[in-house]
Specification:
The complex is a heterotrimer.
Chain A: H1 26-51, H2 68-75, H3 77-111, H4 116-123, H5 130-141, H6 146-150, H7 161-184, H8 190-197, H9 202-231, H10 234-239, H11 246-255, H12 260-292
Helix pairs in contact in A: 1-12, 2-3, 2-12, 3-7, 3-9, 5-7, 7-9, 8-9, 9-12, 11-12
Chain B: H1 3-32, H2 49-89, H3 94-107, H4 110-120, H5 129-152, H6 154-165, H7 170-181, H8 183-198, H9 204-207, H10 215-225, H11 228-259
Helix pairs in contact in B: 1-11, 2-5, 2-8, 2-11, 3-5, 5-8, 6-7, 8-11, 10-11
Chain C: E1 6-15, E2 18-28, E3 33-37, H1 44-52, E4 59-64, E5 67-68, E6 79-82, H2 94-98, H3 100-104, H4 109-122, H5 138-150, E7 156-160, H6 168-182, E8 188-193, H7 196-202, E9 205-210, E10 213-218, H8 220-225, H9 230-237, E11 240-247, E12 250-253, E13 258-260, E14 272-278, E15 283-286, E16 294-303, E17 308-314, E18 317-323, E19 332-337, E20 343-346
Parallel strand pairs in C: 3-8, 3-9, 6-7, 7-8
Antiparallel strand pairs in C: 1-2, 1-4, 4-5, 9-10, 11-12, 11-14, 12-13, 14-20, 15-19, 16-17, 16-19, 17-18
Classes of the chains: A mainly alpha, B mainly alpha, C alpha+beta.
GO cellular component, one term (chain B): plasma membrane
GO biological process, one term (chain B): transmembrane transport
Transmembrane segments (chain B): 12-33, 66-88, 100-121, 127-152, 173-198, 235-252
Chain lengths: 293, 260, 351
């Protein structure tokens, strides 16, 4: 496992047939559950209530039930574009990363090449917040970035969709490679050898043996990483000039003019997209791995 | 077969990926020590002035961020440790529901959570208490992910059984067997939580008390308003705070893998 | 008291809503080794964990050294535990492991050092005292686990599959060494195993369990000679019971297809229904009919080195025999009983 930050799906291990559960005390667990409830669940409920116009309202907002704050992502063409871009960039960057990472991690688990230095480098971006990743992109592809100095046409591309894509690929790199390395580490390479001795070409063996076996893990990684990239604010906040993603509007609604209900509405939509991606991928992953048994 | 070319191709791909990751970091360091980066990397010679200025402007903020991160780590151990133990070992049917709760802060974008938090608890914001709890909330799932599987390991529980049958009281079992055998996981969760809290920006964006910004805010501000060299120097200081910790975690993980 | 050092009375254990162990009673004297055998899931490990106090008891009592320990917490039972994978504390040295219980009991440093040195010498681990468990071989780990449990001079020493974690090639030698070490303990050694050779060769008393119940309890010789039922015969002796009816002409088996002369049987049979205990070496194979033989067809052969293990079909019943000379599948052979080896027992055997 090369990733510092493991995706917490392993939080429920197989329970052993034990009747003594030493140190497992519900009262001792309560403060933790309390934090999750008081600062996680309750704010989410309040967010939803506010988004429906039933809670706090801000400047120029009427109190009373309305779906307007939620449906504005459909009615406003600007917001519609942001939603599409958010999904495109969030999913797209992770998909591009997977196309690179699936063969790479398979080959690394077979051929080695994962020295300590490589493990550190591949994990490095996880310790960097999104804003730093955005800044890195400016250094490379900004108006005076080093690529712009070499190829003037690239100047300022950090702020256009291709540059934003690069930033999000960088951001998702450790979030894809790390969990994928962990699940590929148990991959049985003799399966591929067997397929090859049966006459399968390298490509055929990959698509008919390796990929189907690791697909549940790949789908799960896709969802987990995409949920983070879709919801991330830092990177786009640094790179926002012409192109906009949904998290920007969530923040703007609140900071410019304190439209709290509208901001909550957009936040709920953003949360639905991110959490929905995660939930869908988990369901698909479970379905796929059940089909293998 | 062509094993050697295979390995060469793998190595080349790994190297390319490493370059992709490292180049911007190296460039930011070079810009930070350039007198005038508009004239190219290391343009007009090398200087430490930007770093000195960055430290002068940001040292206090880094210290404050580290303080918050340490408090968040402590809270995670005190609150997350017993919770992880319960999740790992209890036969209660509620563990499933609580593990689901613990995935919420991962699935819900921080910016959305932070709007909910300031709407609900505005009075906690100025003191920084809301920032603290927000950070505990988003880091808790990672602490649980590191600790729960280790606490659930049958080998650990068998060692505890043996220690008890040899005459150890429960607190003694905890101190002499459970904690020493979980050291790697505990260190890993401490470092992960510290790094996450230190670099947290999404949930902090609205929750952060305006009077005392945290390190990522100082960076964000620098990116928007300051010279590239100074912004790079501040980024370099920030990385200097978290990257060494990352080295420790990776080393600890590899040591454990080597043992197995 | 010492002839009933460990006593288990009507013990029942529940496991997640189902009864894992049902009303087991047995007692063994001090200085002996009890083996609990049975197939996996028979409740033998639950019984062991109940003696250690690691699973709650639903009903019944456990008495060790004269004290009722049924509800005593594990830390005050004086029960030494050697788990299957030994569960050595990985963060402590060999010495640290062995002295763990003595430290927990606040034994003063001088006598602690004395006990540890004695046990390290006894288990031949003195040279490894400062090593960590990860640096030891499987056999050395087993001895550390044993020394650690013996250091507290337990009333009962519990061993869960003590040889299962070792290489099969090492097991013979380790079994002999383990027996020497176990002989030194003053309480009762309780060993759980699924291997009948281990149970028969190492224990003074054997308890056979199946589906949570005690099927038979006795000395290895008792069980070998008079297994209580088909299950014990098959599991412990690799033998088969065949129902017979004895009259003046002989003993009739397999629905009258096979009549065996009285003089081949040991002890000589009385008249009436009985059972025949057939072990692989009880049957002889011939090419031609012989007095008291029955015709059979070879269904499977397996060369095992010193002989050939032959499975034959006799009037629809499958039996196993050993043959010195080669036979092939499909061969027609004639089976007789070897002189005096098979026992006829009364239909009702006391369990």
């Amino acid at each position: 496992m090369a990733s510092t930050v493991m995706a917490p799906e392993a939080a429920r291990p197989g329970r052993q047939a034990r009747t003594t559960a030493r140190f497992a005390s519900f009262p001792a667990a309560l403060p933790g559950i309390g934090v999750l409830a008081v600062f996680g669940v309750v704010p989410l409920v309040v967010l939803l209530v506010t988004a429906l116009g039933l809670g706090a309202t801000g400047a120029g907002e009427d109190a009373g039930f309305t779906l307007e704050h939620l449906t504005q992502v459909l009615t406003s063409s600007q917001l519609r574009g942001e939603v599409v871009n958010s999904i495109l960039v969030g999913l797209g960057s992770v998909l591009i990363m997977l196309v690179i990472a699936v063969p790479l991690t398979l080959r690394m688990s077979r051929d080695g090449g994962g020295s300590g230095a490589v493990a550190v480098v591949f994990t490095l971006p996880i310790a960097l917040p999104g804003i730093v990743v955005g800044f890195f992109t400016i250094l490379m592809l900004g108006r005076t970035g080093i690529f712009a100095q070499a190829v003037p046409a690239l100047g300022g591309s950090a702020y256009a969709l291709p540059g934003i894509f690069m930033a999000y690929i960088y951001f998702s790199f450790p979030r894809v490679i790390g969990p994928l390395q962990a699940s590929v580490s148990t991959f049985d390479h003799s399966l591929v050898d067997t397929a090859r001795t049966l006459g399968a070409s390298r490509l055929r063996a990959f698509f008919t043996v390796s990929l189907p076996i690791i697909l549940p893990a790949v789908v799960q990684v896709l969802g987990t990483a995409a949920a983070v990239t879709i919801g991330g604010y830092g990177t786009i906040a640094t790179l926002a000039q012409h192109e906009r993603l949904l998290p920007l509007s969530v923040a703007d609604q609140l900071s410019n003019g304190y439209r709290v209900a509208s901001a909550s509405g957009l936040a709920v939509v953003l949360a639905l997209i991110a959490a929905g991606t995660l939930a869908l991928s988990r369901a698909a992953s479970t379905w796929l791995s059940r089909r293998q048994r | 077969m062509s094993g050697r070319t295979d390995r060469a191709v793998t190595r080349a791909a790994v190297t390319l990926c490493a370059l992709f990751i490292l180049t911007p970091a190296v460039v930011s360091i070079l810009v930070a020590v350039s007198a005038n980066s508009a004239r190219g990397l290391l343009g007009d010679g090398v200087t430490g002035d930007w770093l000195a200025l960055a430290w002068e402007q940001m040292g206090e903020t880094l210290r404050r961020s580290a303080g918050v991160a340490i408090a968040v780590v402590a809270a995670n151990l005190l609150v997350g440790g017993p919770l992880a133990m319960w999740l790992a070992r209890s036969t209660s049917r509620w563990t499933r529901a609580v593990s689901f709760l613990a995935t919420l802060p991962l699935a819900i974008p921080g910016i959305a959570l932070s709007i909910g938090l300031i709407t609900l608890y505005p009075e906690l914001r100025p003191s920084g208490a809301l920032l603290f709890f927000g950070h505990v909330l988003v880091t808790l799932p990672f602490a649980l992910a590191a600790l729960t599987p280790v606490f659930a390991e049958p080998a650990l529980q068998t060692c505890e059984d043996v220690a008890a049958s040899l005459g150890s009281s429960n607190p003694r079992v905890l101190l002499t067997v459970t904690l020493p055998m979980s050291t790697t996981a505990i260190v890993q969760s401490v470092i992960t939580v510290f790094a996450l809290s230190f670099g947290e920006f999404n949930i902090s964006f609205f929750v952060n008390p305006p009077a005392s910004p945290m390190a990522p805010f100082a960076l964000f501000d620098a990116y928007a308003t300051q010279r590239l060299e100074l912004a790079s120097a501040k980024t370099m200081l920030f990385m200097a705070c978290v990257v060494p910790l990352l080295l420790v975690t990776v080393a600890a993980q590899r040591a454990r893998q080597g043992k197995e | 008291m010492s002839d009933r050092w460990l006593e288990i009375e009507q013990l029942s254990i529940d496991y997640g809503g189902t009864r894992a162990v049902r009303e087991v009673s047995l007692s063994v004297p001090a200085g002996t080794t009890l083996a609990i055998v049975g197939p996996s899931g028979c409740g033998k490990t639950s019984l062991l964990r109940a003696i250690a106090g690691l699973v709650p008891v639903a009903a019944g009592r456990i008495i060790a050294g004269g004290d009722d320990i049924t509800s005593t917490p594990p830390s005050r039972r004086d029960v030494g535990l050697v788990p299957q994978q030994y569960a050595l504390f990985p963060h402590l040295t060999v010495r640290g492991n062995v002295e763990y219980g003595l430290r927990a009991r606040k034994v003063d440093p001088r006598s602690r050092a004395e006990v540890v040195e004695r046990l390290l010498t006894f288990t031949e681990l003195t040279d490894f005292a400062d090593r960590r468990p990860a640096q030891l071989s499987g056999g050395q780990r087993q001895r550390v686990a044993l020394a650690r449990a013996m250091a507290i001079e337990p009333r009962v020493l519990l061993l869960d599959e003590p040889l299962a974690a070792l290489d099969p090639q090492l097991r013979g030698a380790m079994r002999r060494q383990l027996m020497t070490l176990l002989a030194a303990s003053t309480g009762v050694n309780v060993m759980v195993t699924h291997d009948r050779h281990e149970a028969l060769s190492m224990a003074d008393h054997v308890a056979v369990m199946r589906a949570g119940e005690l099927v038979q309890f006795g000395t290895p010789r008792d069980l070998w000679d008079r297994p209580a039922d088909d299950f014990v015969a098959d599991f412990l002796c690799a033998a088969t019971y065949v129902d017979v009816e004895a009259d003046d002409r002989g003993v009739h088996a397999l629905g009258g297809h096979w009549t065996i002369p009285h003089e081949l049987l040991q002890p000589p049979s009385s008249r009436g229904p009985a059972r025949l205990l057939l072990r692989p070496d009880s049957l002889l194979l011939h090419d031609a009919p012989a007095p008291g033989s029955v015709e059979a067809v070879v269904t499977h052969t397996e060369f095992v080195g010193e002989s050939t293990q032959v499975t034959v079909d006799v009037a629809g019943r499958t039996l196993t025999a050993r043959s010195g000379r080669p036979v092939r599948r499909g061969d027609r052979v004639f089976v007789t009983l070897s002189m005096g080896t098979a026992l006829v027992q009364k239909e009702k055997v006391a369990a």
